[in-house]
Write a structure and sequence with these properties.
Keywords: Coiled coil. The protein has about 200 residues and is mainly α. It contains 7 helices and 2 strands, in the order αββαααααα. The chain has a two-stranded antiparallel sheet with strand order 1-2. The protein is rod-shaped and about 100 Å long. The chain starts with a helix and ends with a helix.
Length: about 200
């Protein structure tokens, strides 16, 4: 082909086939002089490209569905764990609330037996159960002279029991015996009596 023929040449299709015509076209111009084109390789490249596109079109929806499924599964498992944690927390709160209600009822009953206001009784709580017993006893018998005249045997048994019970309720971690607590109550009277005797001696 002469130089003039190259200048006047129009675009030339690499592969003259009805199915692939128009996909691969090379424009012959001055830059293509001496360039050897392997039409077989071009066709193979095209077929590979079409095949790859077909595979991707088939696999992409499946891959997308799988990713969505995994994300939903992860979200479900996360929500399931949160639900279990919340259920456990609710059970704990119910148990604590139930214990609190029982505790309040018992304190209210102790206050009723002792004839003391419930808030005033709560203020008698000390650093230990024995201190609490002494505080309640002093609140129950505020007059020093009256305390000096009494012993634990002169106190109504139901009141002694109420003082001991209240001390145990507000100090659940202690394991003092009933005798230890009743001795704490008796010590209030004994101590006051001792103070009265000292005053008389002076």
């Amino acid at each position: 082909m002469s130089s003039e023929q190259r200048k006047t040449s129009k675009k030339h299709s690499i592969i003259d086939n009805d199915n692939i015509k128009g996909f691969f076209e090379v424009y012959l111009d001055q830059e293509l002089k001496g360039l050897a084109i392997d039409y077989g390789k071009v066709l193979a490249l095209y077929l590979t490209s079409v095949s790859t596109q077909t595979i991707n079109q088939d696999e992409t929806p499946n891959e997308s569905f799988e990713i969505k499924y995994r994300k939903l599964l992860e979200q479900y498992e996360k929500l399931e764990k949160e639900n279990q944690d919340l259920t456990t927390e609710i059970k704990c709160l119910k148990a604590k609330n139930k214990k609190k209600i029982i505790k309040c009822k018992k304190i209210k009953q102790c206050a009723k037996v002792l004839g003391l206001d419930i808030d005033l009784l709560k203020q008698c709580k000390g650093d230990s159960s024995t201190i609490t017993c002494r505080n309640v006893t002093r609140e129950l018998f505020p007059d020093a002279a009256e305390r000096a005249s009494k012993t634990i045997s002169t106190i109504e048994k139901n009141k002694v029991t109420a003082i001991v019970e209240f001390a145990r309720i507000v100090h659940p971690g202690e394991s003092k015996s009933k005798r230890d607590l009743t001795n704490a109550i008796g010590n209030v009277f004994a101590s006051e009596k001792l103070q009265e005797q000292k005053k008389k001696n002076y």
